[in-house]
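Let's practice the habit of predicting before peeking. Look at the sequence and jot down your guess about where helices and strands might fall. Then scroll down.
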Amino acid sequence: MALTAYQTQFKRRIKRAISLRAKADRKARRYTQLLADAIGAAEDAATQMNALNQLYNVDVSTYTLLTQALHVNSGQEVLVDHLAQSTPGEELVLFNQVPDGNGGQELPPNPLFGELVAGAPIIPPVLAAKVSTPWCRRPRRRRRPR
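Done guessing? Here is the structure:
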C-alpha cells in the first residue's frame, strides 16, 4: 500500500530529527571526553603544583577557579562513568506505520523541521523590536604606519 503525502511527510521529518539527535549525541560525547581529559590534565598539574609548593615552601594555588569547580562538582570519574553507561545509537528507532491523519494531506511547512515557508515570515514581537532598529557598521579606520 502506498504512503499518503501525510505519512511521507512524517517519514521525512522523523528521519531528519533522528539525524539531528545523532549529531548532537556525537558532539556531546566528543565534548564530554574532551572535558574529562581536561579535568585529568588539571589534576596532573595540581599534583605537580603541590610537589613544587612542598619542595620550595611556597603557596601557589593548585587549581584555577574553573578547574577547581569542575574537579569538585563533576570530576573526571563522573564524566567517564556517564560515557561508559551509554553507547552511541543505543536508542532503538522503530518505524511504525503512522496513522493516516489529516485526510492524507501534508501539514503546512514548518521552519522547525527545516522547511521553507512560503509567504511573509511570522516574527515574534520581541524579535520584531530588535529587527526594526537600524544597525549601522562603522567604517574601518586605517592604521598609520609606524
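How did you do? The chain has four helices and no strands.
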